TrEMBL record:
The active site is at C132 (acyl-thioester intermediate), H244 (proton acceptor). This is Aspartate-semialdehyde dehydrogenase. Keywords: Oxidoreductase. Residues 6-121 form the Semialdehyde dehydrogenase NAD-binding domain. Its EC number is 1.2.1.11. InterPro entries: NAD(P)-bd_dom_sf, Semialdehyde_DH_NAD-bd, Semialdhyde_DH_dimer_dom. Belongs to the aspartate-semialdehyde dehydrogenase family.
Length: 336
């Protein structure tokens, strides 16, 4: 498919930005040209788009005038400053940051759940992509909605890559230091992450809920049409480089057939692992490097379903949804 569409990936050097570029190349995204854009401190860097090497352009010098579509993966501060500029120049924007997720009039979209939200958005639309902890959770819950969900209780086990490259480097440095009998320096997190678990992600409010817990609760409820009070969320950071996991309990209003639940999950495209196999569960290690949302350890106790979910937080939680939204928008004549 030939096209004159030019796109920009803003935050191209971030973990999500690099994964977006990889997926654009792998999926043969129909663009005449892709620009790699990032903050001024990344000026002079290069990134890969398949076999191509792209020079990273500083966003404060970049013109969006000839760009039909911009994918932002650079964080909320940069999005708040430059998304309006991109839209004023006529570009459609797909934003993976918290900047606009709760803003009235901005659709929050996970294409496998609510792609219909992308229809008839008008000129230079803005689409928000959910938190990478939210979308795999919502994908696992969506097939259960017809069974009448009463309440969801979820504990997340989140990889350090969710905090970016510096967090990964810090965990690696701390691990090396501990094996070398040296003090482990702590900068990114409040406490050491190597060989540890941190049961708070972000600042807490007056109720004791962390920023991440509020994000997961509110965005999941919005995606699925649930009430926020139907979700109880606890979020922890664990010493894993890539791959988030979720321990989920879903209370339904009545008893259910476990085999029918499995069929619903498979029909929705989730990857189910049988407990009859040796090691019949999926860990973050197996989930990393692909776009699958992996479900294992399904069990029923009365009207409560328990399950374990793992997914690559960068590819399956974030980048693939940015690219799928971009593919849908690129198919709309207004961008061509």
């Amino acid at each position: 498919m030939s096209t004159s569409l030019q796109i920009a990936v803003v935050g191209a050097t971030s973990l999500v930005g690099q994964a977006v570029l990889d997926l654009l190349a792998e999926r043969n995204f129909p663009a005449a040209r892709v620009f790699a854009v990032d903050s001024a401190e990344q000026d002079g860097s290069t990134v890969s788009l398949g076999n191509l090497e792209l020079d990273v352009r500083p966003v404060d010098e970049f013109s969006f005038e000839n760009v039909g579509l911009a994918i932002f993966a650079a964080g909320s501060e940069l999005s708040r400053q430059y998304v309006p500029q991109a839209r004023d120049a006529g570009a459609a924007v797909v934003d993976f940051s918290s900047a606009f997720r709760q803003e009235a009039g901005v659709p929050l979209v996970a294409p496998a759940i609510n792609a219909a939200e992308l229809a008839d958005l008008g000129r230079a639309p803005l689409v928000a992509v959910p938190n990478c902890t939210v979308t795999p959770l919502a994908l696992a819950l969506a097939p259960l909605l017809p069974l009448d969900i009463a309440r969801v209780t979820v504990a997340t086990y989140q990889a350090v890559s969710g905090s970016g490259q510096k967090a990964m480097e810090e965990m690696a440095d701390q691990t090396t230091a501990l094996f070398s009998h040296r003090d482990a320096e702590v900068n990114v997190y409040a406490k050491r992450i190597a060989f540890n678990v941190l049961p708070q992600i972000g600042e807490v409010d007056e109720n004791g809920d962390s920023e991440e817990e509020r994000s997961v609760r509110d965005e999941t409820a919005r995606l699925l049409g649930l009430k926020p009070e139907q979700l109880e969320v606890s979020c922890a950071r664990v010493p894993v480089f890539f791959g988030h996991s979720w321990a989920i309990q879903v209370e339904l209003h009545k008893e259910f057939d476990l085999e029918q639940v499995q069929k619903r999950l498979k029909a929705a495209g989730l990857q189910l692992v049988s407990r009859d196999k040796h090691g019949g569960y999926v860990s973050p290690m197996e989930a990393t490097g692909n776009e699958g949302v992996w479900v294992s350890r399904l069990r029923r106790h009365g009207n409560v379903l328990s399950l374990w979910v793992s997914a690559d937080n960068v590819r399956a939680g974030a980048a693939i949804h940015c690219v799928r939204i971009a593919e849908i928008l690129a198919g709309q004549s207004a961008l061509m």
